[in-house]
Amino acid sequence: MPQLLQHKEIDKAAWDACVEASGQRQVYALSWYLDVVSPGWQAVVEQERGIYTCVMPLPVRRKFGILYLQQPLFCQQLGIYSRQELRQEQAVAFQAIVQRNFKYAPGYAFCTGNSSSLQRMADPQFHTLYTLYLGLNKPYGQLWKGYTRDRKYNLNKARRENLRLIQSQDIEPLIRLFRQNIEHKVYGGVDEAAYDMLHRLYTACVEKSVAELVYTLDELGRVVAGGLFLYYGGYIIYIFNAADASGRKRNGRTLILDHIIQQNANTDQILDFESPMIESIAGFYQSFGSVPVPFFEWEYNLLPQPLRLLKQVRRQVLLRLLPCQKRG
């Protein structure tokens, strides 16, 4: 029988053992990862004789005294992680417990491993999103053939630019690239707390030996592009990246991604580009031969009518203020 557990009630060793044994293994769901991106997270847990058999992390936030669920930064997916095949009735029972205790969720993303169970439910509260996966279980030569003509051209161009790839354990250059070249493009700006979280998350990932940080350097040794990758559960997640004008022009990130693909070719791993649903970015990632894979976002509002109307009005105002862009 699943039950809601407060943060202090969660047995984290039992939790991580369940995630590790599940068919949906993801680094996002491990307790130490959640501790960084969603301090105080709660959970729905099904257990048998002290062994967690099925778990669902809940990234809980509070505003105006209301507890609600909100997908954390650096955490594209969560959902239900089960030692056995997830049954539809299990998913329904977990959702019921969540909605009894949390009346509002502007967006909670279930992992791709939950999609087959959830798609049969035809719930209007679910919206389909996509990430991009590239299976690496082929020799590099075959994977390279899956690149588009333009990507092959740009890769060859990058190789002629005398750029150098290095591995590093210093994330500050990557954050600096993002601050100087991308932050101003983010609507509403970037809270300093997000950078603090990234620092803490990277430190934790290094300690757990799941992180690889790769930079592209120019002839003068200057960092012009960088990418952070997380390895766990058969997935390589492209979690964070940035480049300056020179790095973009000289295809520094193309060189980095090709390097990751080449060094992990002929393995059973999947490169998850963690793609946002923005056409230009998705197009870039698909040029490496990746394919869209669906996952579901759960959005609901069960607040009392006055609060619900207030939330709806606020959402509509924000949408009008957002800069025009294509939505996937």
Automatic annotation (TrEMBL):
<feature type="domain" description="BioF2-like acetyltransferase">
    <location>
        <begin position="150"/>
        <end position="265"/>
    </location>
</feature>
<dbReference type="InterPro" id="IPR038740">
    <property type="entry name" value="BioF2-like_GNAT_dom"/>
</dbReference>
<keyword id="KW-0808">Transferase</keyword>
<dbReference type="GO" id="GO:0016746">
    <property type="term" value="F:acyltransferase activity"/>
</dbReference>
<keyword id="KW-0472">Membrane</keyword>
<dbReference type="InterPro" id="IPR016181">
    <property type="entry name" value="Acyl_CoA_acyltransferase"/>
</dbReference>
<keyword id="KW-0812">Transmembrane</keyword>
<keyword id="KW-1133">Transmembrane helix</keyword>
<dbReference type="Pfam" id="PF13480">
    <property type="entry name" value="Acetyltransf_6"/>
</dbReference>
<keyword id="KW-0012">Acyltransferase</keyword>
<feature type="transmembrane region" description="Helical">
    <location>
        <begin position="223"/>
        <end position="243"/>
    </location>
</feature>
<protein>
    <submittedName>
        <fullName>GNAT family N-acetyltransferase</fullName>
        <ecNumber>2.3.1.-</ecNumber>
    </submittedName>
</protein>
